[in-house]
Amino acid sequence: MSVAIRNVLTARTDRAARRFSHARVAGGLVLLAWAALFWFLLISGRYNLYLSTRTSWVVPVGAVLLTGAAAGRLGSSRVRSPEPLSTREAWVLGLMVVPVVLVMALPPATLGSFSASKRTGFTGAGLATPVGDIGTGPLTLIDVAAAQTTKEGEEALAERAGSTVEFVGFVSRYADTPADEFLLTRYIITCCVADATIAQVRVVNVPPGRFQVNDWVDVRGTIYPVGREVIVDASSVQEIPRPSRPYITP
Amino acid sequence: MADTYETGQTPQPVSFRTGLAIGAALALGAIAVRLIDSQRIAWMQTFFVIFGSLLIQALPFVLLGALAAAIIEVFVPIGTLERLANLPKPLQLPVAGIAGIAFPICECGSVPVARRLIAKGLLPSAAVTFMLAAPVLNPVVIASTFVAYRGRTSLWTMVLGRFGLGLIVAVVVGWVVGNRSPEELLRARPDERRAPLPLEIEPPEASWRRFFAHLGNDFLYMGRFLVLGATIAAMVQTFLPARVIDGVAGAPVIDLVVTMGLAFVLSLCSESDAFIAASFVQFGPAAQLAFLVFGPMVDFKLSALYMGTFRRGFYRTLVLAVAGTTLVGTMWLKVVVG
Asked: What is the domain class of A113-239 according to CATH?
């Protein structure tokens, strides 16, 4: 018998001796579910609701790696001595798919005004907004938030009093907020939503009762920093759809 | 399941009906999420978003760690690691710590790598040093710390302090581990306790098969603890007002303990935590450094991973040693830097 024929026969015998391992198939399916979630996030663009621009690269990388890991595990799930899969382990693996189900079944959602009171104020001293940036060019919410936390920033922003600004954010209100005012809020994230800090300005001179909490708005007006509080006297407030990138990254 | 294996009983194998029940439960869960309309229930929406984001950001790093662990397990010749283990004992711990620089993995990923290193015969103390040092000393973390503190007077205190104190804490904890055996450190894991295959009858599995088996096993084992840790961290972030924490800064020693506690609760990835630490301007550099050194070594999600990897007694020792050394180190820094 030639070596080639013997090799073919050995390979066939080896394949016939292999059986599906329940443990490997179940684990492969969990990996596949997570891979599907990452592809879903990537294709739908929903990763913007969870991650900052700085860390969004983990989604394509995760999608490719998880797909490879799932394919490799499922492809090697026929073994000569299948590992047992206990009922308890099967339920644990099922629980690992729960986050996948949650994220995929959840309508596109972002942090809203509920968590604004539970978040620390953004204090980006030295982070990516040097004082020089505040003094020149159009003011952003990051400039404003960073300026609120350092003395130099406060002074630089104070010099911009009377400048025209345009900010996009959502409406927040506290119990004592007057009817013709609201707090324009935007979350700043550096990594993922768990790191979110808030940037907030007080918008005055808005039509009472027109904007509801969590409505996304585009505010144009004149900025008046008063100590650590920043007031925007609105000249126009327009309701807009939620931006595709609801969080901002310094 | 671990108990079942440890007592030598055969676990009840999963039935087709159980598989169907799990599938049905997941489908029902999906329908419930759609019907409840979480957008109307603010706390629920906040919890889901934070929970999802923690997992989406962290799971690829767990997979990268599992990948590195599987490569070490299957493809790294045992001799390579034996050479590290053959170094003079006083050198083993610092070298293991410095080796962390070469592994750009975060803390979730370094736990399975350390476990594999121990399984491959590296001194447990050196593997623990590596596990603690890698998430603090890796180049990505150093770069993110530099970016976060750029433009501040405390820039080099933070970058060098994090590197230096991180290495010191990792080496000290390795020294505390001493000559403990792998059995004293590691918790038995079902897939590693199984009887070895009768190698004399069957040829060994192909390398690629073993690679994917290890990769999947590590990911699935660590992943379940990450899911648990993310659940707790998301609950804390949903219900605990940050302003409560903000009010504590200023008290000597208490500020260090508070930032360490904060790092524990927030369970941030070491590649991103510098940006959060830099935002605690109410706290001085020493307290921020305590946050940056302690967090990547001990936090909520890591505790879940440690509990699944190490024996309970060792977990307690690890937490106390890391906390004690970080506290002493940052108190000294406070004396020197202010």
From this structure: mainly beta
